[in-house]
Specification:
It is a single chain. The protein is α+β, with helices and mostly antiparallel strands. Among the domains are: 105 residues, Hypothetical Oxidoreductase Yiak, Chain: A, domain 1, CATH 1.10.1530; 160 residues, 2-Layer Sandwich (Ribosomal Protein S8, Chain: A, domain 1), CATH 3.30.1370. It is 34% helix and 16% strand. It has a seven-stranded mixed β-sheet with strand order 3-4-5-11-6-7-8, with helices on both faces. Strands 1-2-12 form a three-stranded antiparallel β-sheet. A hairpin with a 2-residue loop joins strand 1 and strand 2. Helix 1 packs across helix 2, helix 1 packs across helix 12 and helix 4 packs parallel to helix 5. It is globular and about 55 Å long.
Length: 385
């Protein structure tokens, strides 16, 4: 997974005004600070409250109702505060598009511990959030909850959001996602895989669950779009052009090229293939020409640690995690972080100061979207069969 938004300190002496519009949902609360924009380290510094409200209005321009808007907003801001490129870039790059021909979402239960969700071409975040909630409820009843989704065609965002929701229940949460052909298998010119991320949250005693969120690609697709928006080069060895040559030009990668898997080799390629199969054909999602099919898939597991008979799992997982963190470090290594710790620390830092750095072109684009918001415009509630 790639990170592109930089933390920056606000200019000394700047006084921020209080905001009258706090975030409605608790996950993205911040120090109440009104919009006052300054430049630092190349980013535009924006109050979290204004970024949240601007993003909310921009989402509503797509025609989403209040409930759907807040769900999408919560997931986007979760990522944005962590410096994860699964955030607000999606609003300005068609990543949250609404299909005017969407049909009601259908939920079936093949067996008591599982559910299958036909998303009806509704928003991927809304469908996957519901899938995580169902998996949790089934896990409470049966010790395991398994939910597959299909027929969504928009990004599901940061999988850590959903996995952590499960982990916070004291369950092991595993979330797999498939997407259109953006990534080339090892040795290939042609893109066949999606970025195929995995989210995994493992609870422990005495602390927050450890939450892994990573793409099996070397770079996120929306990382390419961020680079295109900012005009900045890509890191080396993350993408190739249409002829199979490595490139740092996002435009070349997007013009018939492909992203690489994370080690540019067979191990990451094979892991991506497994996710492609599990979050694709297994759940009834498309397995060829996925973008045109508008049928992307996800697979969610919620597992109660007690079903395998080890009542000491939480203590033991905490021990292993601390053992990793406290391992003897190599020279020059200041700390060893568990998955998710860097993002959690950055989110906490951003919330504490109440501001966040946003790439200038992205902030301008988001404001332009928000300016189109008309509170009297027609909204289209998500329908459930």
């Amino acid at each position: 997974m790639s990170f592109s938004l930089k933390s920056a300190s606000i200019t000394p002496g700047v006084t921020m005004m209080k905001s009258k519009s706090p975030l409605k949902r608790g996950r993205v609360s911040s120090a109440s600070k009104k919009s006052f924009v300054v430049k630092a380290s190349g980013d535009t510094m924006v109050s979290i409250d204004e970024l949240t409200e601007t993003t909310r209005k921009a989402i509503k321009t797509y025609g989403y109702d209040e409930k759907a808007t807040e769900c999408i907003l919560d997931i986007l801001m979760y990522a944005q505060l962590r410096g994860n490129n699964q955030g607000i870039i999606k609003v300005t790059t068609n990543g949250i598009a609404r299909d005017p021909e969407a049909t009601p979402i259908k939920i079936t239960e093949p067996v008591p511990l599982s559910a299958a969700i036909d998303g009806g071409n509704n928003h991927g975040m809304i469908v996957l959030d519901k899938a995580a909630e169902i998996a949790i409820e089934k896990c409470k009843q049966h010790g395991v909850g398994v939910v597959g989704t299909n027929h969504t065609f928009t990004s599901t965002g940061a999988l850590g959001y959903y996995a952590k929701k499960i982990g916070e229940q004291g369950m092991v949460g595993i979330v797999l996602a498939q997407s259109p052909e953006f990534v080339a298998p090892a040795g290939a010119k042609q893109a066949i895989f999606g970025t195929n991320p995995i989210g995994c949250s493992i609870p422990r005693k005495g602390g927050e669950p450890m939450t892994l969120d990573m793409a099996t690609s070397a770079y996120a697709f929306f990382g390419l779009l961020e680079a295109k928006t900012s005009g900045k080069p890509l890191p080396p060895n993350v993408a190739q052009d249409k002829d199979g040559n490595m490139t740092t030009d996002a435009n070349a990668a997007l013009d018939g090229g492909a992203i690489m898997t994370f080690d540019c080799g067979y191990k990451s390629s094979n892991l991506s293939l497994c996710i492609e199969l599990l979050a694709g054909p297994l759940v009834g999602a498309a397995y060829n020409d996925k973008k045109a099919a508008k049928n992307w898939g996800n697979l969610v597991f919620a597992i109660d640690p007690k079903i395998l008979g080890n009542d000491d799992f939480l203590e033991q997982s905490a021990f292993v995690m601390e053992r990793v963190k406290n391992a003897e470090r190599k020279e020059g290594v200041s700390s060893i972080n568990l998955p998710g710790e860097r993002g959690d620390a950055l989110a906490a830092e951003n919330k504490k100061k109440g501001t966040i750095g946003v790439e200038p072109n992205l902030w301008k684009g988001l404001q332009e979207y928000a300016a189109k918001y008309d509170p009297k415009a027609e909204v289209f509630p998500i329908e459930w069969a």
